[in-house]
């Protein structure tokens, strides 16, 4: 398989949103394939017709698109392949690697009760396994695979190592139901084979399925893919990630304003490592990612680490890319789009907004001064800084700024001179200036705001505040 093109797949069930754990599985598959010039395929496992919805399918597609995990070709519907799955089951019947089982549910239950009472394995052993086909009555039947009953099956897993299963623990699993519909265990194998999947990278909750699915591969004489069963994601308390830990769906992380590159970085690092590297680009992840770096222990989701990685990506990001992220975030959350003037303003301000913002909402809040219009309405905290004394000092500062060369040094000197006149520190004047320019008690440096706003707008806002 070494000279074969790598083909991976992501195969979610469309019964809800794209879970953050599913997103990481998709990401691992995408990184492994894309980093090797291979194919990354998408299959929607929609055989549960009662629970599968078009809305859930769309949510999965939207989540993958937002994360930038592009797939090759169209998404495959598992339900649409039912006839092909059944065809394989009939080929196995003809080859003698599967058989018709006429046992009723009552007979199976009675078998298990007797076995339990006698202290034997309750794994159902069908009396039809070696029955003469001509003796089969004209009754409903299921098709069961003939599992080996002695020896061992070894699942050679790239993450878990060799996992040995005793064959006497494997039942003759049903591959075709009595109504002629295929079971999930058959459909998965047929689809993976037909799609040319070379590497099955999925959650380790599927590890128990691998040995059973190998029965189908072996019965059909098909190549078994490379298995890589990755540990699940746990919450900070070490228990399986659930709603009590917070956000579960990818769309929730989008709404919280984590930049795509930052979330991709964090999810890649969740259960996989490359030395001590914590913060890296997607290009580096594509270059570095390998199955050897995946740990066996469950990874713990840590919001503080996610915020830290997110903040570092915001600081690293190219201004044009960051503006695009901001616009995408506003659209996704239903907030008003930026006007042309706001886009220009925020672009000019990004140099002083990037540092210390962990998320896009934090960055937008820091950029409030350039997104808002006169007259500025100070919030409660900012209003406290605008008392009679401070307004008088701002009025005194205005002529100094009007004649200043509009550079950082000149602005600092002008403010420092007024502060000295009033025998106060420069920092003491920052509060009222901030309140006048931004209407907030927390903002970028007052000198950065002046430079971004320009002379006329700065003087106009100060004049408004002193009236």
Automatic annotation (TrEMBL):
Major enzyme class: ligase
Reaction equation(s) it catalyzes: tRNA(Glu) + L-glutamate + ATP = L-glutamyl-tRNA(Glu) + AMP + diphosphate
Domain Glutamyl/glutaminyl-tRNA synthetase class Ib catalytic: 5-307
Gene Ontology biological-process entries: glutamyl-tRNA aminoacylation
Segments carrying motif 'HIGH' region: 12-22
Domain spans labelled Aminoacyl-tRNA synthetase class I anticodon-binding: 341-465
Keywords, alphabetical: Aminoacyl-tRNA synthetase, ATP-binding, Cytoplasm, Ligase, Nucleotide-binding, Protein biosynthesis
EC number: 6.1.1.17
Motif extent ('KMSKS' region): 240-244
Summary of subunit composition and partner proteins: Monomer.
Function comment: Catalyzes the attachment of glutamate to tRNA(Glu) in a two-step reaction: glutamate is first activated by ATP to form Glu-AMP and then transferred to the acceptor end of tRNA(Glu).
Protein name stated in the entry: Glutamate--tRNA ligase
Species, as recorded: Meridianimarinicoccus aquatilis
Phylogenetic lineage: Bacteria, Pseudomonadati, Pseudomonadota, Alphaproteobacteria, Rhodobacterales
Gene coding for it: gltX
